[in-house]
Amino acid sequence: MAAKMAALVMLILTLLVVRLDAENTNSVYHPCADSKIQRSDGFTFGIAFSSKDSFFYNQSHQLSPCDTRLGLASSSKNSQLALFRPKVDEISLLSINTSNFFPDSYGGYMVAFAGRKYAARSLPAFVANSSYIVTSFTLVLEFKKGRLQNLYWKRDGCASCKGKSSFACLNKQDCAIRTTSCKNRGGSVDCSLGIQLAFSGTDKHLRVFNSWYEVENLRQYSLYGLYSNLKDSLTSQYNKFF
Ligand SMILES: *[C@@H]1O[C@H](CO)[C@@H](O)[C@H](O)[C@H]1NC(C)=O
Ligand SMILES: *[C@@H]1O[C@H](CO)[C@@H](O)[C@H](O)[C@H]1NC(C)=O
Ligand SMILES: *[C@@H]1O[C@H](CO)[C@@H](O)[C@H](O)[C@H]1NC(C)=O
């Protein structure tokens, strides 16, 4: 009887811990503010679209898009901002619908960023020019004790589009579609951007994030099948290609 009670108490405690664990404890919603996260928190970051040069100060130092010296927010700079708040350590596929947004008309490059004092930003990634658009990306968010340290684009050296004639391999790293194949550009492909996220490193309780290992083991594009809202557009058309 006592053992049963103890087991029951343990079960209730476990449920409580799991419940608490599943709650968001991060109250920082601004991409240009610092936060320290734990597993299951939401984490806000931004992706800025602009020309490659506009992410550099004095043509030499790459700064965070949050840095006012870049002046990305000013209307004279041709840029666009997308904000996301994924759940930490959950594999997520972000999508940016390009039916009304042509990345090439905003400079064609993107930088992922978050934080102020502990500002982190990715290198600029080529998205599109008038000839080509890259639609599939993997972004790794690397944390140390819950603080974002680094953001980087993980590339597969065009492994996912090798031998597929609908794609071109740009600079030996990006699978690109000809813009003339895109909807609203004379073609039939939905050229929306898909950004697969992976979390690596540790949270503020030093717990190790696992989603990175999972993504490493997944073939690129395999996640698209899990997202029913993208199924009809992305998956079916990619199935035709792959
Ligand atoms: C900008 O670059 C020029 C030439 O590279 C250099 O002389 C100048 O000191 C730099 N200005 C700042 C504010 O870093
Ligand atoms: C993008 O938006 C268009 C128009 O609203 C829609 O038809 C299309 O399915 C969307 N694509 C994705 C990938 O959500
Ligand atoms: C678009 O980018 C590709 C890859 O960098 C390049 O080969 C091509 O010349 C560019 N096209 C235009 C019109 O800038």
Automatic annotation (TrEMBL):
The Gene Ontology biological process annotation of the record reads: protein histidyl modification to diphthamide
Q: Where is the signal peptide?
A: 1-22
* GO MF term list: metal ion binding
Keyword vocabulary terms for this entry? Signal
Q: Name one GO cellular component term.
A: cytosol
Entry-linked InterPro entries: DPH3/4-like
UniProt cross-references to PANTHER family, sorted A to Z: DPH3 HOMOLOG-RELATED (PTHR21454), EXPP1 PROTEIN (PTHR21454:SF48)
Output this protein's name: Expp1 protein
Source taxonomy = Eukaryota, Viridiplantae, Streptophyta, Embryophyta, Tracheophyta
